[in-house]
Amino acid sequence: MVKRTILAFALAAAATAGAAATAAAAAGPATPAWDRALQRHQRDGGLDYAALETDRGDLDAFLASLAGVEPGRLGRDEQLAFWINAYNAVVAHFVLERYPGIESVKKVDGFFDRFTYPVAGKPRVLNDVEAEARRLDPRVHFAVVCASASCPDLRGEAYAGDRVDGQLADQTAKFLADPGKGLRYDAEANTLWLSSIFKWYAGDFTGGSTVVAFFARGRVVDWILPQLADRGLAETIDRRDPAVRYLDYDWSLNDRP
Question: What is the pLDDT of residue 209?
Fold first, then answer.
């Protein structure tokens, strides 16, 4: 009788734990918590890491929710928002683990390809999380933020499935309108300066391999032109067919104390 009682108790506990895990997965990520953290600590396109470090309850709540999420249960837009938010939050976490001594993520060996965090059921490196988002929409390159000065600005709100298309359109337009980060046209030299993102991930914007797309720069420009808010500039670039060069990438930390 005692053994049967213990077994029944163990089975009931296991069932309860399983039900809780299933409920957590069905509930999805704790996106509102990440949204609150961004609203309080995003500054001028970067993060106030010192303030976030002393007030990281919402960040930690969101991070804790990532492991149990099952992206396959989400729609395409919800998946897209999930992977972007996960990437940005894990980056912030990795920075805080080394703050205030960190000056650049580029100087941290393994930041993108060795350190793991539990996301969607298994340990993942940042490159893996980014790849999941990239396969859904190339505009994620203007939403995922690698904590560096030349990265796109960190949005002051979380990405949401029901608004992610508009959020990405806005992020893309703003990035391309920034001559120090995204795009600058030198009319006198007829040269178009682009973010190095368009060189490193050329294939994402052309649908081809990175190597082939690198030599087919015109196809990258063809992708860019419809995204430009300045239609006059887009028409000028299209008409003059400028040479393409790439801006230097500033890897210094996007700290905004």
Answer: 65
> What is the percent of the chain with per-residue pLDDT over 90, rounded to a whole number?
84
Residue 28 pLDDT grade (very low, low, confident, very high; cuts 50, 70, 90)? confident
Residue with tokens 């190339």: 138
Strand 122-125 versus strand 116-119 pairing type: antiparallel
Q: At what angle do helices 76-98 and 57-66 cross, to 10 degrees?
A: 130
Q: Which domain holds residue 153?
A: 19-176
Same structural domain for residues 39 and 160? yes
CA-only gyration radius of the chain, Å = 21
The answer to whether residue 116 sits within a structural domain is yes
The answer on 207 and 156 residing in a single domain is no
Contact, 38 vs 154, CB < 8 A? yes
Place of tokens 């490193």: 200
Q: Are strands 183-186 and 122-125 parallel, antiparallel or unpaired?
A: unpaired
What are the beta bridge partners of residue 3?
none
Number of domains in the chain: 2
Match 């796109």 to its residue by tokens.
152
C-alpha span between 132 and 127 (Å, rounded): 9
Domain end point (choices 135, 161, 176): 176
**Neighbouring-strand partners of residue 244:** 192
Instruction: Identify which of 60, 132, 51 has the alpha carbon closest to the alpha carbon of residue 90.
Output: 60
Quote the CA–CA distance of 85 and 101 in Å, as a whole number. Answer: 25
Say if residue 218 is in the same domain as residue 236: yes
